[in-house]
# Entry
Amino acid sequence: MTTTSLRLYPDRLFPADERTRAVARRLHASVADLPIISPHSHVPAQWIAEDISFDDPAALLITPDHYVTRLMHANGVPLHELGVGQGRLDEPAARRAFAHLCEHWADFRGTPVRYWLENQFVEMFGITEKPSRESADRLYDTIAAWLADPANSARRLMERFDIAVLATTDAPCDDLTHHAALRSDGSFTRRVVPTFRPDKYLEAAHPGWASLVQRLGETSGVPVDDLPGFLAALQDRRAYFQQHGAVSADHSHADLGTTRLDEDEANRLYQLGLSGSITTEQATALRRHLVWHQVRMACEDGLTMTLHPAVARDHHRPSFERYGADIGADIPISVEVTRALQPALESFGTHPNLTLVLFTLDETVFSREIAPLAGFYPSVYAGVPWWFLDAPDAIKRYRRAVTETAGFTRTSGFIDDTRAFCSIPTRHDMSRRLDACHLADLVVEHRLDEDEALETIHSLVVDNPRKVFQL
Amino acid sequence: MTTTSLRLYPDRLFPADERTRAVARRLHASVADLPIISPHSHVPAQWIAEDISFDDPAALLITPDHYVTRLMHANGVPLHELGVGQGRLDEPAARRAFAHLCEHWADFRGTPVRYWLENQFVEMFGITEKPSRESADRLYDTIAAWLADPANSARRLMERFDIAVLATTDAPCDDLTHHAALRSDGSFTRRVVPTFRPDKYLEAAHPGWASLVQRLGETSGVPVDDLPGFLAALQDRRAYFQQHGAVSADHSHADLGTTRLDEDEANRLYQLGLSGSITTEQATALRRHLVWHQVRMACEDGLTMTLHPAVARDHHRPSFERYGADIGADIPISVEVTRALQPALESFGTHPNLTLVLFTLDETVFSREIAPLAGFYPSVYAGVPWWFLDAPDAIKRYRRAVTETAGFTRTSGFIDDTRAFCSIPTRHDMSRRLDACHLADLVVEHRLDEDEALETIHSLVVDNPRKVFQL
Amino acid sequence: MTTTSLRLYPDRLFPADERTRAVARRLHASVADLPIISPHSHVPAQWIAEDISFDDPAALLITPDHYVTRLMHANGVPLHELGVGQGRLDEPAARRAFAHLCEHWADFRGTPVRYWLENQFVEMFGITEKPSRESADRLYDTIAAWLADPANSARRLMERFDIAVLATTDAPCDDLTHHAALRSDGSFTRRVVPTFRPDKYLEAAHPGWASLVQRLGETSGVPVDDLPGFLAALQDRRAYFQQHGAVSADHSHADLGTTRLDEDEANRLYQLGLSGSITTEQATALRRHLVWHQVRMACEDGLTMTLHPAVARDHHRPSFERYGADIGADIPISVEVTRALQPALESFGTHPNLTLVLFTLDETVFSREIAPLAGFYPSVYAGVPWWFLDAPDAIKRYRRAVTETAGFTRTSGFIDDTRAFCSIPTRHDMSRRLDACHLADLVVEHRLDEDEALETIHSLVVDNPRKVFQL
# Structure
């Protein structure tokens, strides 16, 4: 029989050794209250612009968060029972989804989801009992009441969470009206910026690509009947994003290839794409060429470029057909960095205007390729752990794998990459705690003085993201 | 000069930090005396059925165990000196083999072989002095006397070790007579079940494949002159195995491919295989198609499917030609999981009857592919470390790599995978100790309450293997 | 504000846990004063033969050491500002280069470069204040004065560092005159041996290959107009190196392939190479064939063979064109060992005369391929971490990844692989400290007795390098 009370320990995540723990505690305390900089998230700008209140506990904590739904699915709960693909849930359905989470609470032991939820339950909702089949309805009521309080609207939370900067992720043809509204609203002092994410526009073999291109042409007003026009149209949209505050462009493809084609050959492939007769291989070659051009544009307009490669999206087609994308069925694959980026880095690796942040779900490249690249090229930064790796042990492995070759200055600062809005504070706090752990180890092993560690953790929280994302 | 006494410390394998060690000690104590469930081993059923006594210390501890012989071979001892490929040894030869082990005792420092042997020496044989050239004959005598005691026959040991379930590994045409004898023997209360292992039947380019197929046809009574017949014959043998208590089928090929062919094309390749004119590439394509069908059959008959991929078998051909297979010359290679399993998982990944356990010797796929798959698909489980990785540090890395994405419920429970019969208790105990270490870390870092850790370690020892292997 | 004093802690690198630290301290103390064996370095023999004094602090510590320059380059300092490719620096330029290092001191936090420099600053130069913009000139003066002291010439330092053996790295046509001078100098009691490094001679598609071959023919006096002649010429140079004390040959190619070609086909490719019409693929096939022959020759002449594969050399072509090779722009790639070495190991893996040391920058192969190979083949040793991995955390990962499968006896002993002469003592001391940490963990976890650990660390420092490099 397990205890039923839920509580947070001030020393959570800190190492067992007392001396090291004491150092970690001091390091963490020095940055615990600093504002949050979130240069890569999936929170919709609309939430902030319209200052929404969240519908219900399931809509807040479960349905949109594939971290949460995927592990329940693995443990036998159908996705529709969790609200996935069901539109807005009525109260019984929302309660049922929430009850599933409570009943499956033990399945999350040892995962960061458990950690994040526990933190939110205690710190945000004031819950003091553990989720369980028995407590599910009481917890639902507590959270629902919290959500109904106007003090907990999206903007009020953004203030309370002390989020200084929040970058959303946006499609190239988005008109960014919500971002514009926020910028022109004098009463809103936080910074919400868009991120240019053109993935689908660079994949000429994907169904619907030609109509995306057509829309790009219409939105930009630039004729896209040949590749130079297409590139000019993309550049136009990048400029539009910059005018609306964007500081970065994000790219996620199956590999990191940047091989440049002859421009005439590239245009030929582009035309094949428009006519729907491009092969997969040709489309891959064209995409790598287009990514090279995105690096070129980044040198020209200065948008930081983040790369999130190597995920097999929608791995289970039947689930994709039933529920759509982003349901937790994206599975990582291995990635190659050194050779793939060489063409772009030969062209632009020492360009003073380029900032390239390399993320990975394949941990093997941290020490083998990313840290060595970030330790030579002034344009390259080692992105912090992302997605499946944004968890305590993986984050510790990352620091151990990257620091010895690239130091701390060549890393990106934390990104939360989430649409789970209320988890943002605990995610950033987790990152600060873990950086404190790593630095405390260095201090106790006499590899760093404690005052240097204090400076370093401050840089990791403040300076690195500001520098890397030009904030 | 090293000490000459041999002893076991109650806290062995537990972490240095006293507070963490205390938690680990309590967690381990709670499961230390639970029965052993061994759902994947290489102990021959004949040993139990005939209640054999072991020949001599070399035959018990050295000759059949490639973990032991390979490292001595690397350190300069020819395999024949260890009895490999020599048939039953006379006493001088057995003493010589055992003396080699004692003289090479230092070469095993830091390896699990040293740990397992030390445990057996002290706990089983009551030995109190270290193996060395000087002590070799005394130790030999002690173990030989122990072996001669009828109280140490295979069945008596199985009782004493408290092995509740033992799964053997068996060829599809085996008549399972020993399993049948054990099941019909009312005096024997332990459960010994066969495992269906059809590897060789799925590799159409291997020499002797056609005669294996012929034997399969004869044994099953199903005509195998075309592929549907062959598949029906395999299904017949799976049923035969299930009637004899089998709960799983085991598969070990160079990759995890499950790409399905057009059935006519597959049958064409099958015919090429029978006529001896299939190419290696064609045989690989056919094998992947056949593995897809094994997944299909697993959905139909419910046998758990374990996958042990990516070993270059018999790496050193001259040794293979002299000594045969399974001599320690199998060397791991890298493996790809996400793409390889996609065809089978698209077809059957959410089938309620499917249980798929993924083992690997390539640690890189734990966090990158296996945990993400096990954290989405209800059919997929992350197999615990196997073979070269069934060692303390590797097991700790496994829990750290898998848990954050897949939790504890999506892991298989321990398998010993051994033919070293007397090492089974210490192998399972090692696993329990290491799970206690991992959970103790989580407790001390306030990522889990101790009562939850107690529940979890009980599940890892009892519930997970029972669920995954349907025991 | 950070402290400004610089000091070394006696317990640096030791683990936090007091009990473990105490064991590590004792283990380290037992080997701290043993002579240095450096069987693979990049120190030029000329330095020792001519007993040079170093020019200035930049020439000693910065310009030639790409570990140091690459991270400053990443942090925005152009390489020429650090003296790279500038020839001998005048004093203002040397001071400026040194000032860059001091100003960028914080960028090295957490890296081994910081650790090595700190050790040299304190122990060698007696510096007690931290490098900074403010202290740069004072530190420069201190080091410059130290360099001007004749007591700090190369030979005097070699005595003071107690370097028993130093292996240099040399081109096949080098006349080894400096080595000869040292051997015939009765006043010099240390051993300086050459290493045969024929990389460029095995890459037939590289520009200038044909003229290298011609030079090889002239130097050896063996006609090289066909492949047998070329091989005989190489063998002749290997013999010449052995006569001058060489104990090993070093090989660094993009992969580890050893596939043997038909000799006639190989000769055809060789002729294509000489005529400049060989393709990249053909040259790769020829190189793998030639490496197979290097293994054969190693069996015949007994030179230990070290393999340092899988680096993308000169990754940034513009920097290569401006500054040349070895400037920190070499980036690792993944490597495959099991299949690549199989042809050579099938031929020679159990040959009594062969010693093959496998290094890697791809950590994934430590547990997956290298340890399993070293744990079976008597000829194969797991090389210690090299280059980007010669750092505290990576070295700890190496011992954890390799020991459980291969033990300690199948590892190479430390190599420093450096041209940073004054860093040699601290690099070897770091290795001894880290081996002490690993062994202390084993002792405290009751996996090894402390007297065994004492024996083991002595072997790692003395016996393993002597055995592996036949010293």
